[in-house]
Amino acid sequence: MEITGIVTTGLGKAAYFLGQDFYKDQFKEKCGFTPFPGTLNLIVEEDKLEDIRLMKNSCKNLIKPDQGFGAVRYIRAHLNKDIEGAIVFPDKTTHDENYLEFISKDKLRDKYNFKDGDEVTLTIDI
User: Fold this and answer.
1) Most Cβ neighbours (<10 Å): which of 9, 15, 35, 115?
2) In this structure, what are the phi and psi dihedrals at residue 110, rounded to the nearest 5 degrees?
3) DSSP letters along the chain, please?
4) Rounded CA gap, 112 and 109, in Å?
């Protein structure tokens, strides 16, 4: 499945959560990379929301939390065809449903010079 997204600034909370060892260790084990402590936030097309909802609700890939933290569902994906990573669906989130959070090993805004308003393509491995 391919989804077009527009890069946007997030709330800045992902850095804290992705910095936790139990999240980092499980992403390394299950996805093959240690995520940069932060996400690339994307606003997605309205016509894809039902597909995203179905994908999220049927997702069985789970990062289990330590006490006091929420679980995170994830689906492997590629950004702009060649950037490996995953879309994450935290159980505890304040984002609207038209936001997707993409993680990878790199700080994507720096490495690829992404700015708010840039259009990207997610290829979701389902």
Assistant:
1) 35
2) -80, -50
3) -EEEEEEE---S-HHHHHTSHHHHHHHHHHHSSPPPSS-EEEEE-GGGHHHHHHHHHH---EEPPPTTS--EEEEEEEETTTEEEEEEEESS--S-TTEEEEE-SS-HHHHS---TT-EEEEEE--
4) 6
What digits encode the pLDDT tens for the residues 11-39?
666 777 777 888 889 899 999 999 999 89
On whether the CB atoms of residues 101 and 39 are closer than 8 A, the answer is: yes
Structure tokens that stand for 110 in this block: 């720096």
| Residues 14/38, Cβ–Cβ less than 8 Å | yes
Residues in the chain: 126
